[in-house]
Design goal:
With 213 residues, the protein is α/β, with parallel strands linked by helices. The chain is built from four helices and nine strands.
Length: 213
């Protein structure tokens, strides 16, 4: 059966244990890649990078892809969790369309998130669920939290030179780059991730940011 390894990128947040638990609950092998922080992997395989690379976990992703024993990897941040049933959705889609290289996982926020037109400032969407619309294509708010064919990273590693003002869009930029190089992208069309369910944020929640703390 086609399978994926969950790569958890961590900077040492205390919510890491919940991310690990959610991935194990769904029956996945877990590799925790720490961006220089000392962490407990709760029995999962752990790799600690020798320094903090930053860039929204780009180097953690590259290392995790190199170590994964499976044809695919599924990315998970240390403050997010997989929903119950995510494993069944992922396995079903991988089996249904084996030609797809990158699957975009839907995300669910704990509260409404507002998206606005960057030119006019007009509100274009308000809701809790994102990245579930294949008809909208690859765009901000609709391309994040991917499951990758591991071999993608042999040719297009996750970028570590994204300008600081765009680092929160790292997933989107990398997925777009891969699609422009003929890798096939599709959507799970279901929510796979709970975004920061255990972190109380103040201020404005954003699709890729974390708001205030």
């Amino acid at each position: 059966m086609t399978e994926t390894t969950v790569i958890i990128k961590t900077i040492g947040r205390p919510t890491l244990k919940h991310a690990i638990k959610s991935a194990k609950r769904e029956g996945f092998k877990v590799i925790v890649v720490s961006d220089g922080a000392k962490v407990s992997a709760q029995g999962a395989q752990l790799v600690r990078l020798g320094k903090k690379w930053g860039y929204y976990g780009g180097m953690c992703t590259n290392v995790g892809a190199a170590m994964a024993p499976t044809p695919f990897i599924t990315l998970l941040d240390d403050d997010d969790e997989l929903i119950e049933g995510a494993g069944d959705i992922i396995r079903s889609k991988l089996k249904e369309k084996p030609e797809v290289d990158i699957w975009i996982g839907g995300v669910r926020f704990a509260r409404d998130v507002v998206m606005r037109n960057k030119v006019t400032g007009e509100e274009t969407y308000r809701g809790t669920d994102f990245a579930i619309w294949p008809e909208k294509g690859i765009g901000e708010g609709n391309a994040c939290m991917p499951t990758y064919r591991t071999s993608v990273f042999e040719h297009i590693p996750f970028m570590n030179n994204v300008k600081e003002e765009y680092q929160q869009l790292s997933d989107y930029i990398h997925i777009l780059t891969c699609s422009q190089n003929d890798y096939k992208v599709d959507w799970f069309e279901d929510v796979i991730y709970l975004v920061r369910p255990r972190i109380k944020a103040s201020g404005i929640e954003t699709v890729n940011g974390r708001g205030g703390k």
